[in-house]
Amino acid sequence: MPESTDKVWEINLFSSEFKENAYQIYKQLRLNDPVHRITMPSGHHGWLITRYQDALAVLKDDRIIKNPRKVLNTDKPNRVLAESDLLTNHMLSSDPPDHTRLRSLVQKAFTPRMVEGLRGRIEEIAHTLLNDVQDKGKMNVIDDFAFPLPIIVICEMLGIPAEDRDKFREWSNAIISATNQPDKMRQIQPQVQEFIDYLHDLITKRRQTPRDDLVSRLVHAESEGDQLTEKELFAMIFLLIIAGHETTVNLIGNGILALLEHPAQMEKLKQQPELIHSAVEEMLRYYSPVEIATNRWASEDIFLGGKKIPKGDMVLVMLGSANRDPEQFANPDQLDITRENNRHIAFGLGIHYCLGAPLARLEGEIAIQTLLARMPDIQLAVNPATLKWRPTFLMRGLEELPVTF
Ligand code: HEM
């Protein structure tokens, strides 16, 4: 890594080397080239925003937009995923007024008050999953606990069979790991098509026989005509499934890893379980589960950090880097579950601030608290050096986390 700004170096965001060394690379970038230009596999130029203050500026800037069709000379910006065009018209790739309309259709289901009503059920799910492994004295935290818990919750909210979760996992893993890589996107077309067929079948069933679930309510909104198009209906359910599958699993997995790496902090949390709220906020900051915010596009030339980001270029906010910026956080590489004024941006900021944040927080708190209460002598079962981060572009999450208790 160079020491000065004149030198240029290539960063491959898609490599496992990057994932393994990301926090050192972020440190260098924040110091030497905080608004750093890269070339994406699609050929677009992208700008990595690594400082906290610049990240806030970008996330709040309405000249930096989400819908690429408005700035790119192509009607197929997402290439292969967009071939069907069925899965891309969701709120996370829309700007106002479409974004406002789409978000307001589901906002109510995710308010802190609605989500609090799920507490008892989430606790029950956490206990059931731990009952299944308790006698074995060991588990893989990811597969046995962190993954199924949020999936069961989101499937129940949407009204889709949780038994199908292995299929969702395969589809959503495939799609997430192909993000921003046109070649990989082409390879995973069969999985994308299976996912679309599944959604088609589900929507048809709920159209025929509505139930008291989110999918039925969205199908109803679509049938009303002016609130939701059919494409938007598919994309909305797709987004909620993906968001429910790929994120909270990493909060729980990364959070447990962070505690295992910091035994004094783990001990403190066991002694003072009431610290769980600030502990989960710190886990979100320390190993941010969504490491890079989703694609944004400059709708005009933007000047930031002494650089000109030309109209049409991609802007990538590195949440994982902003959340370790020493200008904002004292001792940023230290896990401190009592950290005060922890204004991390792990859930983003501005109009696309995570819709599922209250749910994710509740799930994270219940999962970690239940696990520590039931398995207080939890220990890593492997050499820490053998743990691997999944080489996915947007997310930070472990392949597996074997523990004994
Ligand atoms: C720890 C878990 C989670 C984290 C760290 C997380 C993080 C994020 C972030 C960073 C964004 C903004 C992305 C951007 O601006 O580019 C976002 C948006 C979103 N998240 Fe989450 N998320 C989590 C869990 C969930 C859950 C459980 C759901 C619900 C199913 C959810 C639904 C959404 C939706 C729908 C959006 C788009 C909001 C919009 O465009 O207005 N998230 N999330």
UniProtKB/TrEMBL annotation:
Keyword Thylakoid among record annotations: no
PROSITE patterns: CYTOCHROME_P450
Pfam families hit by this protein: p450
Annotated SUPFAM superfamilies: Cytochrome P450
InterPro entries: Cyt_P450, Cyt_P450_B, Cyt_P450_CS, Cyt_P450_sf
Listed transmembrane segments: none
Keyword Oxidoreductase listed: yes
Swiss-Prot/TrEMBL keywords: Heme, Iron, Metal-binding, Monooxygenase, Oxidoreductase
GO MF entries: heme binding; iron ion binding; monooxygenase activity; oxidoreductase activity, acting on paired donors, with incorporation or reduction of molecular oxygen
UniProt record similarity statement: Belongs to the cytochrome P450 family.
Protein name per UniProt: Cytochrome P450
Organism: Paenactinomyces guangxiensis
